Amino acid sequence: MNTQNENRLYHPKFKLQGNSFNTVSGLISYSKEISNEISNFLEEWFDNELFIEVFTSGSTGVPKKIKLQKKHMINSALATGNYFNLLENTSALLCLSTQHISGKMMLVRALTLGWNIDVVAPSSTPLKTIDKLYDFSAMVPMQLYHSFDKINNIKTLIVGGGVISNTLLSKLENCKTNVFATYGMTETITHIAVKKLNGFSNNQECIHANYTVLPFVAISQDSRGCLVIDAPKISENKIVTNDVVELVSNTTFKWLGRYDNVINSGGVKLHPEQIEQKLASFFANTQFFVIGVPDKVLGEKLVLVIESSGNDINVQQLQTKIKSETTLSKFEVPREVYTIEKFMETDTKKVKRKETLQACLK
Question: Which domains does the chain show, CATH number per domain?
Fold first, then answer.
């Protein structure tokens, strides 16, 4: 590794577990005491290659290995630091796996911006042993759900990797922490847009809040109504997503759902993610999703899939309750209910909808 490369990727104020380092070799040696995952990433980060190799999440197909340029990762880190005003000496907590881009980028932000970052092993209860106060952290929804007893130890928190349930939103209402949902993917080097999740007068304001893009990002739609991202500082090519959005302005958008999840039922286009949000109050502690299955009359019919043994669910009563106690239109009411003991998931805990449905139908 040459000195120029080392200086470019390493801020002198950076600290790991409260320790400063005069050399990269000293940093990497110390990181081995924390985890092999972290030391392996740091070795890759400081090598002479201009890129790192990562895998996409695999939530909509087989994970793919892609190359991310280190200069783009640095630009992403700078954008996050500027947006949230997280300058040098920011205290941060890393509680995500550095096998995935979200965890890697927490380290890159710390290295680039000169943060003092602490590391805890990834778990569903990341704050269990934490007593310190932190300026910034990142979590997945499950971690947030299990962290409310100490969530105020974090000043600003970003949450990504999954849908934020209405149950979580309700719990955030009286939370002092500034919590933001993020929109992004591996290809965009984590988030390119954020939206506030708390500090509103009621839940409905939060549900209808829009995502705001970071300063270096321009957005548009393709012919399908899907989001197109033009962010030359993090990607040399425009990124065409499969996320159906409503463009509110040239810097804000509302996420409606995945294009590949859209159900065409009798000519009516249904967005599962919007329906699931309306159904969330029925399944506070149970995983579920809605999906389309072939139908001779409608083309596709909407069905509800619940993670359950099925013994404790009265399908007819559930359908009646859904019709009477939700704001679902008649097209959005599931026509059938399937149960399965365990959903199929990616290694980042995203539900594989089509594979789970196929398991139900066997």
Answer: 3-258 (3.40.50.12780), 262-361 (3.30.300.30)
Assess contact for 229 and 216: CB atoms under 8 A. Answer: no
Rounded to 5°, angle at Cα 35 from 32 and 40: 70
Q: Residue for token digits 């359950």?
A: 308
Q: How far apart are CA 211 and CA 227, in angstroms?
A: 12
| Residue whose tokens read 């009646």 | 320
Q: pLDDT per residue over 107-157, tens digit each?
A: 999 999 999 999 999 999 999 999 999 999 999 988 998 999 999 999 999
**CB distance 16 to 30 below 8 Å:** yes
- DSSP string computed for 274-295: HHHHHHGGG-TTS-EEEEEEEE
Instruction: State how far the Cα of 347 lies from the Cα of 59, in Å rounded to an integer.
Output: 9
Model confidence pLDDT, tens digit, residues 222-274: 999 999 999 999 999 999 999 999 999 999 999 998 898 899 998 888 999 88
Tokens at residue 188, please?
């965009």
Hey, what's the torsion of the CAs at 203, 197, 156, 231, to 10 degrees? -170
E strand or H helix at 212, and its extent? strand 211-213
Tell me how crowded residue 85 is: count the other CB atoms within 10 A of its CB: 9
Long-range contacts of 247-253 (CB under 8 A, 24+ apart): 247/219, 247/220, 247/221, 248/210, 250/218, 250/219, 251/212, 251/213, 251/219, 252/210, 252/211, 252/212, 252/213, 253/193, 253/210, 253/211, 253/213, 253/219, 253/227
What is d(CA 7, CA 100) in angstroms, rounded to the nearest whole number?
A: 25
- Residue whose C-alpha is closest to residue 92's, from 68, 116, 128, 74: 116
